[in-house]
Amino acid sequence: MPDGEVDFFRDTWVRYLGYANEVGESFRSMVPLRVVQASYGVASAYVLADTVDKSWKMFKKDGRPKKVLIETGDALLWQTLASVVIPGYAINRICHYSQKFFSKNFRKVPLSARNLMTVGVGLASIPFIVHPIDNSVTLLMNLTYRRWVKD
């Protein structure tokens, strides 16, 4: 991407669609499993949309199959890690341990209220994990995949 150009999928509000599964994970204790699974569907659709976008841009820019494949792999791997796998696991664990904490320390609080507290902790955590995860995945990609496939 040229300097200064806004990446629709990574630099705008659309980036937060990749975090739909974190919202689903936050609500896991209060909603049917299908809702959580649907949130992963939204996040996965976002990942695929960004991958197609990056692949198409590389195809128009260069067109060589190797370049397009490398760009496709880069986008798919980055988005899968930064949007679905790592933040989904992080929020799942944050909510799990919050639920355990609330169950142990707030026994007199009704279960529905403890579940709501867990949802609040999960949702409140999302803004704090977005940029560190994105930056960490970028660093990981720079140290591995992007070194391995550079020309």
TrEMBL record:
Q: Which GO terms describe its biological process?
A: mitochondrial fission
- Any one Pfam family here would be MTP18
User: Where is it found, in Gene Ontology cellular component terms?
Assistant: mitochondrion
Regarding protein family, the annotation reads:
Belongs to the MTFP1 family.
Q: Which PANTHER family match?
A: MITOCHONDRIAL FISSION PROCESS PROTEIN 1
**What is the name listed in the Swiss-Prot or TrEMBL entry for this protein?**
Mitochondrial fission process protein 1
To which species is this protein native? Parnassius mnemosyne
